[in-house]
Design a protein that fits this description.
Elements: E1 2-4, E2 10-11, H1 22-31, E3 43-44, E4 51-53, E5 62-68, E6 71-78, E7 85-88, H2 93-105, E8 111-116, E9 128-133, H3 140-150, E10 154-157, E11 161-162, E12 170-177, E13 180-186, E14 193-196, H4 203-217, E15 222-229, E16 235-242, H5 249-261, E17 269-275
Parallel strand pairs: 4-9
Antiparallel strand pairs: 1-17, 2-11, 3-4, 5-6, 5-10, 6-7, 8-9, 12-13, 12-17, 13-14, 15-16
Length: 276
């Protein structure tokens, strides 16, 4: 049985929450007075204390995935407008580094970031000031991202995915770019294999080959995380994992390709699945 899976898949493609706020302002702080830059959200400020960024009140659940290179280190959950709670995935040096760092990034009062603050008129980018982002601020997660990336971690918001479960083990993924074959991934045997389409290698083929080589070389199960609406109407975190030879491995691979490598209709990379 075969059908094209991602045509009906609904996914939030927004990169990290709030990246137009503190990220843009942080970049502008280093760019010098002559450059154009996005200004920060207006703040309430005085000369003695950092200004408090306006835009608080976010209570919904949000998650960040922290990685070292390609390998996940932790998932950080933010709920009810409070500082995040870390769930470690790794147990190595990167996990120890994050464990040591996290108390300074999870203070109840929030985090301060240097930003250009727009004046009340909204014109110009304003002076460089210290701005306090409280845990319930819409851009708080972006500040967390900046702080972690400054220390060598890769950080991304966990994306929303309304995932149509195929219901049966996937035995093959047939991948196309702009309706032209790229290659196939086969999962019918304990050792999965990739076959590239005939002809000169395109950029899409080389991308698929690179992604597959990474999957072949890694040890341990492949894991993916996404958020979706549960039966109660709440947003919940979903985690799936599988290793080569497991019945679920083909499904986890196609979710990983979609979420982590952006194989989707927007980029005209489609995955047709074959099931048992």
């Amino acid at each position: 049985m075969a059908f094209t899976l991602f045509a009906a898949l609904a996914c939030d493609e927004t990169p990290s929450a709030g990246t137009a706020g503190p990220r843009a302002a942080t970049a502008s702080a280093a760019s010098g007075p002559s450059s154009s830059a996005t200004t920060a959200t207006p703040v309430a400020s005085n000369s003695a204390q950092p200004g408090v960024a306006q835009g608080s009140g976010v209570r919904s659940a949000r998650w960040l995935k922290v990685a070292s290179g390609y390998e996940p280190v932790a998932i950080i959950a933010f709920r009810d407008g409070k500082p995040g709670k870390v769930k470690m995935i790794d147990t190595g040096d990167s996990a120890a580094k994050l464990t040591k760092l996290w108390p300074d990034l999870s203070k109840p009062e929030g985090l301060t970031e240097k930003m250009h603050v727009a004046p009340p008129s909204g014109k110009d980018r304003g002076p460089l000031s210290s701005v306090l982002f409280k845990p319930d601020h819409k851009d708080y997660l972006s500040v967390i991202e900046v702080k972690l990336e400054e220390r060598g971690f890769s950080v991304a918001a966990v994306r929303t995915l309304e995932d149509p479960d195929p219901g049966k083990p996937i035995t093959k993924l047939t991948i196309t770019k702009e309706a032209k074959p790229i290659g196939t991934l086969e999962f019918s045997s304990p050792k999965p294999k990739m076959t590239l389409a005939a002809g000169d290698k395109s950029a899409a083929m080389m991308g698929l080959e690179s992604d597959w080589r990474y999957l072949e070389k890694r040890s341990g199960p492949l894991r993916v995380w996404y958020s979706k609406t549960n039966a109660e109407g709440d947003i919940a975190l979903v985690s799936k994992s599988a290793k080569p030879g497991d019945p679920e491995y083909g499904n986890v691979v196609r979710i990983w390709l979609h979420l982590e490598r952006w194989y989707d209709a927007k980029r005209q990379i489609m995955m047709k699945i074959t099931t048992k």
